[in-house]
Amino acid sequence: MTHTISVIQQKGGCGKSILTVSLASILAGEGHNVIIPDTDTLRSSSLWASQELYSRGEIDHVHETNDNEITGLLRELQGQYDYTLVDTAGFNTRIAAYVAAASDLVLIPCTTTLADVQGAVNTQRFLAKLSAEIGKPIKNAVVRLDFKRKETNDSAISDELSDEADLDVLDSVLWHSTSFKTALNTGKQLKGRAKVYTQELVRELRSKHLVPPTINLKKAA
């Protein structure tokens, strides 16, 4: 059964594509087959996935910006892949609502700015309203990206997030590492600290039952 994870945030430049491709890299590296439906006009995730590198694992991609087609596409992909990872341009479009409604989990990325914190809050409110409208819970959690350890400003941003009672902020952090952007720009799989940080994130998601346990792993490439 396909597990659909979407990455949604109101604000641009908050690391949606980096989070998407990082998860794809780790999950495919485990041996799962993964597809990235990219709904962002910038196509960062699909361009990353389009570079066919055998060592990266099995990762397919499709670019879809038509809100009338996305629900049918996600339904069609059910059962074909272990994970569907949807990259989005934000939630101020109908396509984001359709994607969120079809997702098993929505991850809300947040970098080290107050604008990102407000974007995360607005995104969670959007998901809560949508959930009430469709009569279905939409699991969601905030992922911090590009934070630096022991930086006063970054600690303050974490405190701001913690003060938002409605936000589920994950303990795992994708700490600042140039390896994330290197992977995004080259199409290669994660390496070094970026790989370790993302593996920790995946373990936490599994420990909280937000993604399936590793019981049906295929042989990794």
Describe the overall structure.
A seven-stranded parallel β-sheet has the order 3-2-4-1-5-6-7, with helices on both faces. The chain has 221 residues and is of the alpha/beta class. The C terminus is likely disordered. Helix 1 runs parallel beside helix 2, helix 1 packs across helix 7 and helix 1 crosses helix 8. It is globular, with a radius of gyration of 16 Å.
Concise account of the structure shown:
43% of the residues lie in helices and 17% in strands. It is an alpha/beta fold and 221 residues long.
Topology:
Blueprint: E1 3-7, H1 16-29, E2 34-38, H2 44-50, E3 59-63, H3 70-77, E4 83-87, H4 94-101, E5 105-110, H5 114-134, E6 140-145, H6 152-163, E7 169-174, H7 178-186, H8 192-207
Parallel strand pairs: 1-4, 1-5, 2-3, 2-4, 5-6, 6-7
Helix pairs in contact: 1-2, 1-7, 1-8
Give keywords:
221 residues, alpha/beta, Rossmann fold, seven-stranded parallel sheet, 43% helix, disordered C terminus
Radius of gyration, taken over Cα atoms and rounded to an integer in Å = 16 Å
The named CATH superfamily: P-loop containing nucleotide triphosphate hydrolases
- What is the chain-wise order of helices and strands? EHEHEHEHEHEHEHH
Strand content: 15-25%
Q: How many β strands by DSSP?
A: 7
